[in-house]
Amino acid sequence: MSIYELLTQFGDKYLAALLTTWKLTAISFTLAFVIGIVITIMRISPIKPIRFVGDLYVQIFRNIPGAALLIILVYAFPYLNFVWSYYACVLIATSLLPASFCSEYLMAGMNTIGAGQIEAARSIGMTFFQTIKNVVLPQALRSSVLPMTNLLVATMLTTALASQVPLKPTDLTGIVSYINTRTVGGVTAFMISAFLYCATAVIIGQIGSLIDRKVRILR
Amino acid sequence: MNGVNTSIRDILYEEPGKKARRRIAIGTVISLLLLVVLVLMMIRRFYDSGQLDSKYWIFFTKSTTWKFLGKGLLGTVEVAFASGALAFLMGLFMMLGRISSFAVARIISRILIEFSRGVPTLLFIYFFFLAAPQFGLKLPAFWKISIPVALSAAGMVAEVLRSGVNAVPKGQTEAALSLGMRKNSVFFKIIFPQALRYVVPSMISELVIVLKDTTFAYVVNYADLMQNSRVLISNYDALLSVYLVAAVIYILINYILNQISVAITKHRNVAS
Amino acid sequence: MEQSQKTFEILEEAPVIELRDVNKYFGSLHVLQDINLSVKKGEVVVIIGPSGSGKSTLCRTINRLESIDSGEIIIDGVSMPDEGKKLAEIRSQVGMVFQSFNLFAHKTILDNVTIGPIDVLHKSRKEAQAEAMELLKRVGVESQASKVPAQLSGGQQQRVAIARSLAMHPKAILFDEPTSALDPEMIGEVLNVMTELAQDGMTMVVVTHEMNFARRVASRVIFMDGGKILEEGTPDEFFAHPKTQRAKDFLESIKRHES
Q1: Does this complex have an ipTM over 0.90?
Q2: Mind telling me how many Å the CA of A163 is from chain C's nearest CA?
């Protein structure tokens, strides 16, 4: 099938798929960011059990394969009377997984600050929260712009998990199997989706490095 | 005053005084209680829904169960290694193109790297599963999963290798050139071996990503850990327990790999 | 009799910094042993001693960047608490200059100097900035105000760090080996600023290896070794007639190094 035939026949479906992927990515990333911050606060808490739960979260969700997590959410959890829609299951998986990486990046960002600046803040009389507000948080956030950009792209790639459950409208990966089960989409059907993914990734990357250049901290 | 691997956790708080110590103690007790309650609630869930019934767990005492899971795991490991090796080769070529002095090679490599990094693994798998057979490319299931997983890792591998090459001090090249070595042999004999050493920890992290991606093997019907778990499930009619065990196996393997990567990084920081 | 004693107490000004029987352990290591020290207003106390003698630790305990295991630290008549807002408040009255400058990497030079006055002392931005520019002029880096720390040389960064301390109007400033991380040609510019401060009457505690600075500027020299204060006296006394063998050995080794 030529690209022209494909687009006239499935053009609106591709558009819907692109929007689905974007929407899933945006929601997942936002949730992942919020969860990631909460988990990070838990991991730097002085209270050991809270730290432990934060660490455990990260170790579980950075190491479990996405497919395994989605399968457990969709097929295994109903046995425990946790029954969620396909859409909810996908969103839970595509948020919980990147959240662990988000926390790792934030921790790495904070680790670049070093004891000296924190002691300097203390020595001019800043309280714990003033030190966090003035020194730790701004530097951690500014030095994690590039990792967060990569995380946003990674989150988009993770949302391809949505193709593993019946969703309407389907996402950019799902549409390839949709087309191929109806007609012979061939390489072209695949390339259109691939191009849309790549274009999104490149745009995200460009915006990310633009922001990074503005806020990067010289060391 | 500060060791090499001082973490933000150790420096964020002052040494606690009496009040802080009391608050931490109270917080510890309360959070421990909450944690226990949460775990109990979870166990209660399992109990109420009958999932603690021995029929769901008893077959894990049989050696045949573990042999079968082990076989699946072997399949997973084989795919992971094949994909890892392929990704390394492809990544190496992309990196060489990326740093080449030929503009065309640089542009092509750049496009390939962006493509590899910007397309989800599943889409690559669908390509080899759905599109490739349409023009007569018939691959065994092993390669139908290994090649796409490798393709989607190659771009990252190329970037990691490039960062390793960049991390080798400029003085190394200058020293080698001043000995009269040719440009190519400087790269392959002096720069690249050092770059490889730098990137070992990141490469292990890449292997974890590859290993996680191999779980999509069910799409092409290849017998990996996930697929063999499915067979166990239909044999024993025990879905939840089997999937949980499989997930724990994946998490443990990846955890160990990540710990190795962390240990190497720490060891090096101490050494330098 | 009673009356005259009272008058005497009032005349005898309370020390700005006082340490009473301070002890500190790192695990089983007794790093500060029964330290008693009092620094009067306008005094410049220079602490010297071999590395590992506990001089840096002593300096850091004064504003409780290091905790102590027993004893008491009194700043201008107020006992240093272990924690909380009160601790932060007292710290804001004692400046500190570190070996590695420790400027805030994400803030401009001007913001490094104004952040304390604005956030801790609640001054208006305008007032804080005007004063900060004065201070930067005083330490000779006013032309760098809009740069970030990484763009400055070590000597410049350390002078900014001094300005940052001064902006808090501290009752005393602690210097923890302020020139040890500097290239030789930059040591002078920092020591000059410190000398001027001393002449202006700032109360200072300085941990340093710069013996010439100690000779010229110190009102008192303290020699530490093995976590103890072994000697205390005017620079003339100490450098000409050290009493203990360890002080003699230390001065001897430095002389050999300097010549």
Answers
A1: yes
A2: 43
